[in-house]
Amino acid sequence: MAVSKPLSFDPRQVPVSRVDSHLPPVPHANLQPAALRQRFAFPPEWAPEIVREPRFGERVPAQAAVLIPIVLRDAVDGGPTILLTQRSAHLSTHSGQIAFPGGKVDEQDPTVQAAALREAHEEVGLMPHLVQVLGELPQYETGSAFLVTPVVGLVMPNFELTPNPGEVADVFEVPLAFLMNPAHHRRHTVDWQGGQREWFSMPYTEYKSDDQGKSAPVERYIWGATAGMLRNFYRFLLAENSVLEVR
Hints:
The strands form 3 sheets. Strands 2, 3, 4, 5, 6, 7, 8 and 9 form an 8-stranded mixed beta sheet that branches. This protein has a 3-stranded antiparallel beta sheet with strand order 1-10-11. A two-stranded antiparallel sheet has the order 12-13. It has a single domain (27-186, 223-238), classed as Nucleoside Triphosphate Pyrophosphohydrolase (Alpha-Beta Complex), CATH 3.90.79.10. The longest helix has 15 residues, at 224-238. 17% of the residues lie in helices and 32% in strands. It has helices at residues 33-41, 112-124, 176-179, 224-238; strands spanning 16-19, 62-71, 81-87, 98-99, 102-104, 131-136, 140-141, 146-155, 168-175, 186-192, 195-201, 204-209, 215-220. By secondary structure, the chain is α+β, with helices and mostly antiparallel strands.
């Protein structure tokens, strides 16, 4: 969730202002299931780096929830991953962008966690009983006035997905270690709609085989709100037992 109208610029063409390679990655041991459960059971004192994006437009704020699904892949398969979607190109909002499964919280949803699980099931066919919810990250306000609660859950890898073609063009996984390494966190700044806008991007290259078995690179351009929530997740996993100083 990054914008509510077509962009007047291509985010891929905006120069990189800085790469945070000076910051430490989250240690490998802290990305394992037991450590993740422990972190949410006994969270440290910390502060999210990004709380809200500059607002554009006048739409009424809407509550939303996304699922950050951590797929428990074995070490031989590269370790835990995060499941992401590429939204269908014809959608009126956030078309073609990389996103977590999720959407608006409906009146019948008893909790934001229930909303995130429902949306993940509707979008990609992920069955709720396969997700062990660990907890929530702080609410993230997008520039398009979505008040998003990220719900973090562990997912066993023995699932079958059935993406909804009306909403999802593709589903893929990115190694958690890649996303929790700030050497892959790029900062961008652009003047847009009369103001200055800043965001993170975390481009990931996936290699996919075609019908002839040949491997070809596919860029997964993660940016905007999705990258912002991942950056907060990085801060949460890296935090010690004191408020983290944001640099």
